[in-house]
Specification:
Elements: H1 17-46, H2 63-79, H3 84-92, E1 153-155, E2 163-165, H4 180-191, H5 197-205, H6 213-239, E3 243-255, E4 260-271, E5 283-289, H7 295-300, E6 306-310, H8 314-322, E7 328-332, H9 334-348, H10 351-370, H11 375-382
Parallel strand pairs: 3-6, 6-7
Antiparallel strand pairs: 1-2, 3-4, 4-5
Helix pairs in contact: 1-9, 4-6, 9-10, 10-11
């Protein structure tokens, strides 16, 4: 949407009726654009995030699209086994936990035995005929412990100079106190469970161990150093693919000395061949930069050649356009394209926008049927 910049000097209005009519049309057009913008911002701020289109509510008489979808579904039911769709929908349904606890969890038993020395009725001997068994989910709270490494020293009684001691094991931090397990626990708690280091410091303090946040931060930095070769391999593996997804997002970053945060950027590059049974394992690589300049994706994808699926960011378009050999082919995102039509339809109830959304829904239905299927199966459905 272009910016609306209609400006009128009310103290110097023209007398020509034709000019006045054109000015009125411009004002109406500007008003429509502003209303559309206000509706979009209002939905973004206060409305639901759902972009589902209820076709039954449109009542636009799009019989041709509905007939096409119906014919496609009928053809699918005719070419596939009768119970395949039911089996597929049943298998896709998530398994819910209604009380059964995972079998891989360790069990420990508490036996509460009754006084069975004699029958309370006749005084005869009691015999076990079974048991009642119940399970409860329990937890063993994390407990700090100290690993003591002992290395015996051996000396020869015949010569006082020969002393033998086993070599000391390596440590993740030379001379440091943490074990590998403690560093992993801190890193996982911070990055997977969103537990800040200052809270972890407080939790350790409740067990009598005083470790300030700066110490924990140094340990996290050491873990990052150890993981750098693995990270480099992950990035290289993802970017060596011939088809990747790319996007970026903002990230608040602490700005020491200013007392506030600044905006950084995380670039996401992903490989996922599962929808078309490709050979590559799914993987995602993130690269951090301090800005969003066009040169950033150009640096990351300097050696990439293939299909790059992206949104409408100009940096990706420029990257593909700068390749003289056309080694990068852009594929754009249906969701971004559809969103513009959805927002336009929500504000204007445009029949044309509704028709576009209906056709996109039909395409989505086809892709849902082909996802994860072999190439020949996908080709048969699409044709």
């Amino acid at each position: 949407m272009q910016d609306c910049d209609v400006q009128i000097d009310t103290d110097a209005l023209p007398n020509d009726p034709v000019v006045l009519q054109q000015m009125l049309r411009d004002l109406y057009a500007e008003n429509d654009k502003l209303r559309l913008l206000i509706d979009r911002l209002t939905r973004h701020q206060f409305g639901r995030r759902s972009e589902q289109l209820v076709v039954e509510q449109l009542q636009l008489g799009l019989e041709d699209q509905e007939q096409t979808v119906a014919e496609h579904q009928a053809a699918q039911e005719a070419t596939e086994p009768a119970d395949s769709s039911k089996a597929r929908s049943h298998s896709a349904r998530p398994i819910r936990n209604h009380g059964a606890l995972p079998s891989h969890l360790p069990r420990y038993e508490v036996v509460i035995d009754a006084d069975h020395a004699a029958c309370p009725c006749c005084g005869g001997e009691m015999h076990c005929i079974g048991e009642l068994r119940t399970e409860q989910l329990d937890i063993a709270p994390a407990q700090l412990r100290v690993r003591v490494t002992r290395r015996p020293r051996y000396a020869c009684r015949g010569c006082a100079e020969a002393v033998v001691t086993a070599e000391a094991p390596s440590r993740p931090i030379d001379g440091g106190m943490p074990t590998e397990a403690l560093i992993v626990h801190i890193v996982v708690s911070k990055f997977c469970d969103s537990l800040p280091l200052y809270r972890q410091s407080q939790m350790l303090g409740r067990q009598g161990v005083t470790l300030d946040r700066s110490t924990l931060s140094n340990w996290v930095g050491t873990a990052c150093w150890w993981l750098t070769p693995l990270y480099d391999l992950l990035v290289a593996t993802v970017l060596s693919s011939t088809k990747i997804f790319a996007d970026d997002t903002t990230l608040p970053v602490l700005d020491p000395g200013r007392g506030k945060t600044k905006t950084g950027y995380l670039w996401c590059y992903a490989v996922d061949d599962r929808p078309w049974c490709g050979p590559s394992n799914p993987a995602v690589a993130y690269i951090y930069t301090e800005d969003r300049k066009n040169v950033r994706p150009a640096e990351h994808l300097a050696h990439f050649a293939g299909i790059l699926q992206v949104d409408g960011y100009g940096g990706f378009k420029r990257l593909a356009g700068d390749r003289a050999d056309a080694s990068i082919r852009l594929a754009f995102c249906w969701a971004h394209m559809r969103r513009d039509f959805f927002q336009f339809h929500a504000s204007t109830k445009s029949p044309l926008a509704a028709e576009v959304l209906t056709r996109v829904a039909a395409l989505y239905a086809i892709e849902a049927e082909t996802r994860g299927r072999p190439a020949e199966h996908r080709l048969r459905i699409r044709h």
